[in-house]
Amino acid sequence: MRDRNLADTSGYGGIKLGCIADDFTGATDLANNLVRGGMRVVQTIGVPRQALDTQADAAVVALKSRTVSPGEAVAQSLAALQWLKVQGARQIYFKYCSTFDSVYNGEQRGNIGPVTEALMDALGTDFTVATPAFPDNARTVFKGHLFVGDVLLAESGMRNHPLTPMTDSNLVRVLQAQCKHPVGLLDYSVVAQGEAAIGQRIGQLRAQGVRIAVVDALSNADLLVLGRALAGLPLLTAGSGLAIGLPANFSIAASPCASVLPAARGFAAVVSGSCSVATNEQVRHFISAGLSAFAIDPLQLAAGVDVVAKALDWAGSRLGPQPLLVYSTVDTVAVKAAQARMGAQAAGELVEQALARIAKGLVERGVGQLIVAGGETSGACVQALGIERMQVGMQVAPGVPWCHALIAPHAKPLHILLKSGNFGADDIFSQAFKALS
Ligand code: ADP
Prior knowledge:
This protein is α/β, with parallel strands linked by helices. The protein has 15 helices and 18 strands. The strands form two sheets. A 15-stranded mixed β-sheet has the order 9-10-5-11-4-1-3-2-16-17-18-15-12-14-13, with helices on both faces. Strands 6-7-8 form a three-stranded antiparallel β-sheet, with no helix packed on it.
């Protein structure tokens, strides 16, 4: 990358939309929706030290702020905001998970509220919205309650998440517990009436002192109406769904050119640290197709066994035409058992770091097409690989695009797909490699 100072956007015109994502798979999920809407999108890993040296309509700064302390999450997000503003962003989008989770441990009630309020203060705005609705992935919000498929959030697999369990489906209540200022609801009866009614309701909520409105949305049509109605807000906070209506606000139309990536090279591998219900099925599917897989046991890691070396030795002789899988994915009972022995945080970090070193080792051994399953796991892998930014390409499943990165120090090309735990059909791993061939 040429050494350009932070504010030097000369020749590149500046970005239109600036996005801050609280985890890495979430960032690609958001970028994916913007690319599908015709925006050229660059995703950066953390806050860059330099100005963007490529033409882009939007930049997504991927943070790993979902599971850190609120103070740390706020500091990271404000640094991202500052960089995005310097790059020319006219609107800011704070992206969190479509299951609205962030670290919650009794004392710490989540990071979405503190980050939202800090961004509002920094942008000098007194109103924003919050909606994790993502109908393409069966996340809908009605009367302020989040549904995952046909069940309420608190009855979904999210109630057992290893790091961020969600046991309340009422988002107004969840967010209010994280906020200093009043949280309200912009409900479906208003959304269904269209842009003018939404604008009017926002005026009423503001007059009542509401600072953040949880917004109902059941379909992409709702999100498109909302996109238009919210064009004038300096800050939007949402899952990735709300993004589908935004490119049009900047006079950008969908175009296949936005998602073109270079041709893929190298061996194919999957590294999975997600224990979500969907990933468990995907790992089962991969193994039952007769493909090679190596399981990582957190208890062996804790006992000091060099599991990373074992996994890489195992992979070394197997890399070839077929993809292989290294995974720590287990069901809820096994996660709870490991956490009881090691502590949830310690188990999570140990496994993430091991998988990240394995991902790095695999790329050093010639893997050029890498899938990482799990949000936190993806964050650890991308950091270990030293990836600073990625061009976002075509979608394999809703919220899951292939990306392209150049790995330092020799700018080695890598296609990488970061899959959020809950996303994708059972055969997503094979479908993804097929899409690159
Ligand atoms: P998801 O996208 O499904 O939420 P994440 O990677 O964000 O996946 O989170 C999964 C967490 O569970 C990570 O911190 C990971 O290290 C941890 N983990 C993975 N495998 C195990 C295991 N076998 N036992 C305990 N924790 C695990």
